[in-house]
Amino acid sequence: MRVDIVSIFPEALAPLEVSLLARARDRGLLQVRVWNLRDFTVDRHRQVDDVPYGGGPGMVMKPEPFFAAVEAIAAEAAGRPRVLLTSPQGRRFDQRYAEELARERHLALLCGRYEGVDERVAQGLPAEEVSIGDYILNGGELPAMVIVEAVARLLPGVVGDQASIAADSFTSGLLDHPHYTRPAEFRGMAVPEVLLSGHHEAIRRWRRREQLRRTVARRPDLIAWDRLSEEDRALLRDDGSL
Ligand code: 9D3
Fold it and tell me: In terms of CATH architecture, what is 167-239?
């Protein structure tokens, strides 16, 4: 997969150079290129923003540099990417959205800043607006990194252990169970006996019950009540959660 990111703060995207993503890049599974939006201005002051029509506080990002950037990206890649624009007004990014994007060959991520981006970027390029959640950030650079990491780790071969992807809590639809390692007792806190028992079927049931219990308690919105198996219902009944 190829990902092009356009930003007025390309240095804020430096973390993409390290860790999981760097490995994916070295292995040729992922190609990331960061572009400086200012390089696509044509005026003497390299201006990327301007005052809002209609008045009001703050500045609005101008449309022309975004169009020029996407056209340069399309020319270099010999084809138009799926274009995303980070925006608090966007579609909420979640695991399903990440899986959808992981099937693309080429993405372009445009990072918004200031009060917002001229509406004609979303309308005319066109670009689909994407938000990473309902909290206020200063701009789209962190959202872009979140999106790239979530998508990249779904590409075949990027994460070493495919089993860890399959077991992922959001793929199974439940939160994870608690994890423990040595020592068996730490500052008066004991590891649950069943995990030391070697009784694999009992361990599997305990983990499943903990997953269900925690999901009911913390994220009831994730549970498809009408689609719980008979075993899951029984585990929750034993637990008093149902
Ligand atoms: C406080 C300013 N707000 C006035 C109503 C609007 C606003 C404009 C720009 C709020 C935040 C931002 C900058 N945020 C993003 O560009 C952004 C974002 C976010 O803030 N949260 C979650 N996802 C995203 S994607 C882009």
Answer: Orthogonal Bundle (1.10)
Measuring from each residue's beta carbon to the nearest atom of ligand 1, which residues come in under 6 Å?
A: 86-88, 112, 115-116, 131-133, 135-140, 143
Is 126 in the active site? no
Enumerate long-range contacts of 93-98, CB under 8 Å, 24 or more apart: 93/130, 93/131, 93/132, 93/133, 93/143, 93/146, 93/147, 93/150, 94/170, 95/150, 95/168, 95/170, 95/171, 97/130, 98/147, 98/150, 98/151, 98/154
Catalytic residue list contains 88 = yes
The superfamily (CATH) of domain 2-152 is: SPOUT methyltransferase, trefoil knot domain (3.40.1280.10)
Residue nearest atom 9 of ligand 1, based on CA coordinates: 115
pLDDT for 18-43, tens place per residue? 877 888 888 999 999 999 999 999 99
pTM over 0.90: yes
Domains of the chain by residue range? 2-152, 167-239
Q: Which pLDDT belongs to residue 159?
A: 83
100 is catalytic: no
